Amino acid sequence: MGMKEGLGKIFVKKEGLVDEGDYLDIEEYEAELKEEQDVKMYIKTAELTGLYDIPELKKEIYAGNILILDISLAKQDKVLVEKAIKDLKMAALDVGGDIAGVGDYQVIVAPMGTKIERKKMSGE
Hints:
The protein is of the alpha+beta class. The radius of gyration is 24 Å and the shape is globular. It has 4 helices and 4 strands; from the N terminus they run H-H-E-H-E-H-E-E. The chain has helices at 3-10, 27-37, 54-62, 78-94; strands at 43-47, 66-70, 98-102, 106-110. Helix 3 (54-62) runs parallel beside helix 4. The protein has 2 domains: 3-34, no CATH class; 41-110, SepF-like protein (Translation Initiation Factor IF3), CATH 3.30.110.
């Protein structure tokens, strides 16, 4: 008895023996990973819930990613929001990026080489 037959007896599904067709072809996943290696920047969304979120958010800024930050959960605590925005602004300035509020509950932080336009575009 070969190794394949021996393993087939060990790995049994309810319907019977495991078929080779039951396995996933990992080559398609390897191709996706290779495509991700060419990515230079991500646009990431996050929520600010407390000061403990700041180190992770700053890490993303220093990695060169764009952050779309929801501050609605922290909006009741003005001191928290002011401290967080100040810290994120310093990180954005460190990397030559930009930071701007969008509405009452969102902040966008952009990396080096990206400027946030503060004037709204109109449909005219």
